[in-house]
Amino acid sequence: MKVEFVNPFYKATKDIFKLMLNIDPQRKDLKILEDMIPGREVSVLLGITGHLQGGVMFSFPMPMSLDMIKIMSGMDINIIDNFASSALGEIGNIIGGNALTELSKHNLICNIIPPQVFVGEHRSLSLANQKALLLTLTTSIGEFDLSVFLKTGQ
Amino acid sequence: MWKDSYSIGVDLIDEQHKELFHRVWEFARVIRSSENWEDRLEQVKETMDFMKDYVITHFNDEEEYQEEINYPDIEIHKQAHAKFREGINQYVELFEKEGLTEEKIQEFGGKLMTWLIVHVGKMDQLIGEFVRSQGGQNNES
């Protein structure tokens, strides 16, 4: 797992947050995890296949995820229903798509497996028991985690 | 849902975008309402029919405008429209096959809102930038 695989996802996250929410996330901590675990209440998991294989996960506190949908929709949102969950998944999908476009410039061709959204904490996803990098990002509406576990495929 | 920052400075397109955002907001309100699903179904169907037609009209108008101004990235933009239409059509086909369920309609609504914001907030802004770079015909559609 190379640290440089994280950068395209970090950059795409910043771009899409700016575009969709007018929020500019800042890097806080970078940690190594033994496994990818949704450390916060609402998580979006993207599977990656191709030259790189593994997964990327965004993990948000509940109030932040509700605020994100509120900013986008202009509506009062108090629960992660299918509408909110689908919008969060699609934000993850778009960030992932942009990151993969960036990786393809370095001849790493990958595809995204459609996002899964989890509501609830500490549910182990056990992605091959490989180490993942966890980047914590701060924003004006809360802190969230971007975890990346990618290894070079066949 | 509409924000002034989404404006590209071309009246015809901005007005259509405002209408699209308004309709998607209205759609989201109906599909997220706690009222009985059967009672909301008629309104959902009407909005779906309107959206299908209006998205096509809007994309056609926008592409026609891009041709008029010799927009250099028209082909990239047409591809983005085709992808957007394909995304809608996949759900239309699903609804035709499996009927309109609240779960799937909400899923579609969440995606539709996200696609619209990304498309208008990013791709369409490039049209406005091009118009301004050409000496600015903005607001004179």
Gyration radius of chain B (Cα, Å) is: 16 Å
Termini gap of chain A: 14 Å
What is the H level of CATH, i.e. the homologous superfamily of chain A? Answer: CheC-like
The helix/strand series of chain B, from N terminus to C terminus, equals HHHH
CATH topology title of chain B = Four Helix Bundle (Hemerythrin (Met), subunit A)
Q: How much helix is in the residues of chain A?
A: 25-40%
Shape of chain B: elongated
Mean pLDDT of chain A: 90
What number of structural domains do the residues of chain B give? 1
Which residues of chain B sit in consecutive blocks of at least 5 with pLDDT less than 50?
none
> Describe the biggest sheet of chain B?
none
Indicate the structural class of chain A. Answer: alpha+beta
Mean pLDDT over the full residue set of chain B? 90
**Class by alpha and beta content of chain B:** mainly alpha
Radius of gyration of chain A (Å) = 14 Å
Assess the beta-strand content of chain B as a share of residues.
Answer: under 5%
Query: Low-confidence stretches of chain A at least 5 residues in length (pLDDT < 50)?
Result: none
Largest sheet report of chain A: 6 strands, antiparallel
Number of strands of chain A: 6
Please tell me about this protein's structure.
The complex is a heterodimer of chains A (154) and B (141). Chain A has a six-stranded antiparallel sheet with strand order 1-5-6-3-2-4. Helices cover 33% and strands 36% of the residues of chain A. Chain A has one domain (3-152): CheC-like (Chemotaxis protein chec, 3-Layer(aba) Sandwich). Chain A is built from three helices and six strands. With 154 residues, chain A is α+β, with helices and mostly antiparallel strands. The radius of gyration of chain A is 14 Å and the shape is globular. In chain A, strand 5 (132-139) and strand 6 (142-152) form a beta hairpin. Chain B has 141 residues and is an all-alpha fold. Chain B has one domain (8-133): Hemerythrin-like (Four Helix Bundle (Hemerythrin (Met), subunit A)). Chain B has helices at 11-32, 37-68, 74-98, 102-133. The A-B interface holds A 16, 19-20, 22, 72-75, 81-91, 94 and B 1, 5, 25, 28-29, 31-32, 102-103, 106-111, 113-115, 117-118, 121-122.
